[in-house]
Amino acid sequence: MPAERRKRLLATVHRVIRTDPSRVAPTQVLPIIDDAVAAKILDLAMRIGDAMFAVGASAHEVTFAIVRITDAYHLHGVQVDVTYNAITAAYHRGHDATPITLLRVVRAASPDHAKLQRLQALTLDIVDGLELDAAHAAFRVIRRTPFLYRSSVVVVSRALLAVGVALLFDASPVIILLSFVAALCAALAQAGLARLRVPSFFSQIAGAFVTTIVALVVAALGTAGIDPFVGIRPSIIVASGIVLMLAGLTVVGAAQDAIDGFALTAGGRILDLTMQTIGVVLGILIGLEFARVLGFGITTPIDAIPFGPLPVQLGGAAIVAVAVALFNGAGLRIIIVSAVLGLIAIAGYNGMLQLSVHESGASAVGALLASFAGILVAHRLHVPSVAVTTAAIVPLVPGLAVFRGLLGLMQSDGTTDGLLIGIGPLVLAASIGIALAAGASLGLYLGTPVRATLTSVARSRARVRR
User: How far apart are CA 159 and CA 316, in angstroms?
Assistant: First the structure.
């Protein structure tokens, strides 16, 4: 092979394999932004991110929103760091320019999905070209917007959740009513403690204690032969209360932050979730021990109480999803989407059980289907995906397994068989909880590229029609 031809061949191979530095622009054209304007842009982005984080958004969503806002105002290269209770953003134009760094501490986290929806809409408006001063004004309006519902509506909606859980087990009208009363008492106790600024850990203990005491009173009345309490299964009442206590925990958010690589935020949320769950466990144990001292008790169910027929489950799941959406401050659109996704989750769960899939695996599939459908519908209807996904998976929370395990441990005789009676249901409950978090997170990640593809196809069709 001639030398010239060999050189050309080697040059061709080199171009195919290696990049050409000469084709890369040595500098990047950046708009000149005054330091005062840059600080104003960064401040707006930080305030919106802070507000989103406080009302239930994940760390990834907050980071993405801050970067999108700053990019929209040509403030490129902003570095964002989100931890469990603080957000830091830094902008440095170059080695000769003065860096700008802002830090905001997230004081409290309380779900408010209607406000989250408005904040996401404001972010889209900014990306579409909303002026900086107008964006600041719009954010001030959103920030001052109170919670969508009165406290009485929140309390009743929390009690309504217990009705949905009891309905999942095809409970009798008496048990459904008693579950509502027990949950209402627990919700009122927690609302009163919240006004006194008592930490949520002790609030969880109080709520679980009240629910357990109501169930024990019902069991005592049934043992005494007093109608209509004879034959009542008080374990369903406690299970409804447990789901109520655990419904507000950020299981999906914690799992999503862990998968996204926000280790500190995920660790903080998981620790908070663990403490809240321990509070529920302590409240139940204190209630059972209190009853034991007084000579009362609840018989441990030999077998797990199964869910009722599918139509009844669908009704219960819809009620639970609507109740969760209500006490999280959701608007009508989010409530409707949450109810539909709750039906999808319970239908997927039952479909997997029909295929002899383990209960934890069936729960994971139900959560996956609901979250996958949720992220597609949420983008199209402009509702937060985390809002509808959280409400949809609550009907699958293993409240009864938790109570059976705790009751079994309390009544065990210290032998290996006695301890296994209690440990078995607790292990099942833990596996279902992990499966719900994993399934919901996986559904969100599988749905993200599909949503992006559908969005690009829709935009291409819109341009062709024009």
Answer: 13
In this structure, what DSSP letter does residue 26 have?
S
Angstrom distances, CA of residue 28 to CA of 94, 252, 441: 12, 39, 37
Predicted confidence pLDDT, tens digits, the chain (466 residues): 566 776 677 777 766 677 666 665 555 555 667 788 889 999 999 999 999 988 888 888 899 899 999 999 988 889 999 888 889 999 987 777 788 899 998 876 678 888 988 998 999 899 988 999 999 999 999 999 898 889 899 999 999 999 999 998 888 898 999 999 999 999 999 999 988 989 888 999 999 999 988 888 888 888 777 878 777 778 888 888 888 887 766 666 777 777 777 888 888 888 888 888 888 888 988 888 888 787 776 665 556 678 889 999 999 999 999 998 898 888 888 888 889 999 999 999 999 999 989 888 999 999 999 989 888 887 777 777 777 788 888 888 887 777 777 777 766 666 666 666 667 778 888 888 888 888 888 888 888 788 777 767 766 776 666 6
Q: What are phi and psi of 297, to 5 degrees?
A: -175, 175
Using DSSP's 3-state secondary structure scheme, residue 272 falls into helix
Query: CA-CA distance, 237 to 260, in Å (whole number)?
Result: 37
Pairing mode of beta strands 79-82, 86-91: antiparallel
User: Is 237:218 a contact under the CB 8 Å cutoff?
Assistant: yes
CA distance 241 to 188: 13
Distances (CA, A) of 446 to 28, 370, 420: 35, 12, 38
pTM of the model: 0.82
Query: Is residue 327 classed exposed, middle or buried when 0-12, 13-18 and 19+ CB atoms within 10 A define those classes?
Result: buried
Give the Cα separation of 420 and 426 in Å (integer): 10
Whether 119 and 48 have beta carbons less than 8 Å apart is answered as yes
What 8-state DSSP symbol labels residue 88?
Answer: E
d(CA 309, CA 316): 11
User: DSSP 3-state assignment of 103?
Assistant: strand
